[in-house]
Specification:
Layout lengths: L2 H16 L2 E6 L6 H12 L3 H14 L1 E7 L1 H13 L3 E4 L1
Antiparallel strand pairs: 1-2, 1-3
Protein name: Adaptor protein ClpS core domain-containing protein
GO biological process, one term: protein catabolic process
Pfam family, one: ClpS
Length: about 90
Amino acid sequence: MSTREKLQEEVDVLEAEDRNNEIVVYNDDVNTFDHVIDTLIEVCDHTPIQAEQCSLIVHYKGKCTVKTGSYEYLEPRCSALLDAGLSAEII
């Protein structure tokens, strides 16, 4: 195995570990579709269509993964979703 191949393998493993966490938003009886959509656009950098699709999944399935990444990347976003009144957690 050459040095170049070994380096590539290490990078692939690190990238895979960074994506182990995800923010899941749960359905509730309090927030409107518009509020959820606007919050996902602002906090998670979703496009309007993506935010609308996530809000529909949350409504019909009870939950939806809205963002993936490292815990350090997700923690402030999850806090912002919670501050906006959404039910969310990092898993």
